[in-house]
Amino acid sequence: MTGADMTEADMTGADMTGADMTGAEAVRKVALVTGASRSVGKGIACALGSAGWTVYVTGRGPVGVDGPLDRTAEIVTERGGHGIAVQCDHRDDSQIRDLFAAIAREQNGRLDVLVNNVWAAPKGFAGFTEPFWQRPVEDWDSLVGVGLRAHYVASVEAARMMVPRSTGMIVNISSFGTRGHLHSVLYGMSKAGLDKMAADMAVELRGTGVTTLSLWPGLVKNEAMLARGLDNFQGFPLADAETPEFVGRVVVALASDPEVNRRSGSTLITAETGPEYGVVDVDGNQPISHRAFFGGGPVFGG
């Protein structure tokens, strides 16, 4: 485990402070963001860092080697939070359990937010260009095994820490693939499962003070998109796309909302939720919701 302290932050939105004040002493709020080496996970971790949080970030790659996960933790710290990189293969339940045991030990049982974001591409992933019957059945192991099961296991461990404290928020990073076909059959199944998981966990968590949510980002302007030099993706202009950090700013705003529990069980569209809290993207623009493109209509809790 690595990570150190440091300075700076400025967020747009509701109350984005990450510290509870006890006299003159600030106690940092604690978050775990899984799959935070790059893209949405990294953006969320960095936004939490700007709000002063202690942020555990996980990935399958090694730590302490100046790799992508180490860099995410460093940025969290540079922004005024405390970044801690932890190597974790989320295909392995025991490694997930060990991760939560370490957080409980190091943070005196405190975990305020879990962001379930880790994801694994199927073997030979090349844009999901083949129909399901031409793909190996083993695609299930990554798209559902990591994309759904690992989030369930992490949520179980998080709830065991949060319920005794009567507070906490579990967030699943889901997708419009719940609403319409996107990428593949298994991709859509896993994302729909995340939304249903948040909705049903909220029923069983009612009265505990713990909130569960599922988030749908739109097209995300991440490192891979920018590296390809695209100006649009499948008809969506990149100029209107969300940055990974916009998703993070929405997470911070939700975590800072004292009434967030009233939304428990809901699926929220980041481009629609951001404006409710006055959150804009890093360049000051407001991303566009893709709800209408995917058929409109309601989502869980909305």
Describe the overall structure.
- The protein has helices at residues 39-50, 68-78, 93-106, 139-143, 145-162, 185-205, 223-227, 244-255, 270-276, and strands spanning 19-22, 25-28, 30-33, 54-59, 82-87, 113-116, 168-173, 210-216, 232-233, 236-237, 267-269.
- The chain is an alpha/beta fold and 302 residues long.
- It has one domain: NAD(P)-binding Rossmann-like Domain (Rossmann fold).
- The strands form three sheets. It has a seven-stranded parallel beta sheet with strand order 5-4-3-6-7-8-11, sandwiched between helices. The protein has a two-stranded antiparallel sheet with strand order 1-2. Strands 9-10 form a two-stranded antiparallel ribbon.
- Helix 1 (39-50) runs parallel beside helix 2, helix 1 (39-50) crosses helix 8 and helix 5 runs parallel beside helix 6 (185-205).
- It is globular, with a radius of gyration of 18 Å.
- Kindly name the structural category: alpha/beta
- Please tell me the total number of domains: 1
CATH superfamily: NAD(P)-binding Rossmann-like Domain
User: Major beta sheet, specifics?
Assistant: 7 strands, parallel
Architecture per CATH nomenclature, i.e. the level-2 architecture: 3-Layer(aba) Sandwich
Rough outline = globular
Oligomer: single chain
Low-confidence stretches: 1-25
